[in-house]
Amino acid sequence: MKGRLWASMPVFLFVLLLAVLWEAATVFLAIPHYIIPKLSDVLISTWDNRLLLGKHFVVTLGESLLGLGISILFGTLAAVWIEGSGLARKTVYPFIVASQTIPIIALSPIMVMWFGYEIWSKVAVVILFTFFPIAVNTADGFRSADAGIGEIMRSMGARKRDLFLKWKMPSALPGFFTGLKMAATISVGGATLGEWLGGEAGLGIYTKRASSMLRGEAVFSGVLLLSAMGILLFLAAQWIERISLARRQ
Q: What CATH number is given to the structural domain containing 213?
């Protein structure tokens, strides 16, 4: 525990330095509160509105987790399909890559048109953000499997199912978790964008309403909570990765 605390000390000191610079700059440069509020005002606003922010936090977190879970399911299935089918590797994989040339923000209003202003429009936007990194990184993980190990297993009479479960799938896990950690952080951005386009609750709605009233401290409160949510989801994915790969050489 002491070792971990000592290792995290540089990060803590860096964050503390940024906080001091933020507070000092807004005071000495006399920056208007609706442009960059003082950090102390942001923290006070966060505490004063903690109950309301907590409700919005839960809504955005639920949208992010639901969309991320669906992306994990279908992204992994897509990667398995691409790995197991030569036709899918030549058609589906390039299509998934090419789909990223379309700006996701341009597709977001379409999700609202299709699913309305309920939770599913936000979940759909989260899926647009998170499906690609999971599917592509997992597919690349399958391709990174050591061919020599596969040949040895075949020579020992391994069946196709054994090859997948004991060779391909363990080899794909690092790539899968790389995609998961990326998707976990950007899922929050997808949920926030979906809320901006149309919604009744969530931190995206909170910051949008606060911005329209020029309440800079409330806007930054929402932004800090969104950042904290992304960090928590990343750490959760990292923790799952550490447990899943604990015995991997």
A: 1.10.3720.10
Distances (CA, A) of 119 to 24, 81, 174, 218, 249: 40, 29, 31, 24, 42
Q: Distance (Å, rounded) from C-alpha 247 to C-alpha 244? A: 8
Q: Angle at which helices 39-48 and 216-244 pack, to 10 degrees?
A: 80
Task: Express each pLDDT in 12-50 by its tens digit.
Answer: 788 888 888 878 888 888 888 778 888 888 888 888 888
**Residue range of the domain that includes 99:** 39-244
Q: What is the pLDDT of residues 140-194, one digit of tens each?
A: 888 877 777 777 877 887 787 777 777 778 888 888 999 999 999 999 988 888 8
DSSP readout, 44-104? HHHHHTHHHHHHHHHHHHHHHHHHHHHHHHHHHHHHHHHHH-HHHHHHHHHHHHHHTTS-H
DSSP code of 170?
H
pTM, two decimal places: 0.84
Q: Exposure string (b/e) for 155-176, b if CB count within 10 Å is 16 or more?
A: eeebeeeebbeebbbebbebbb
CB 29 within 8 A of CB 85: no
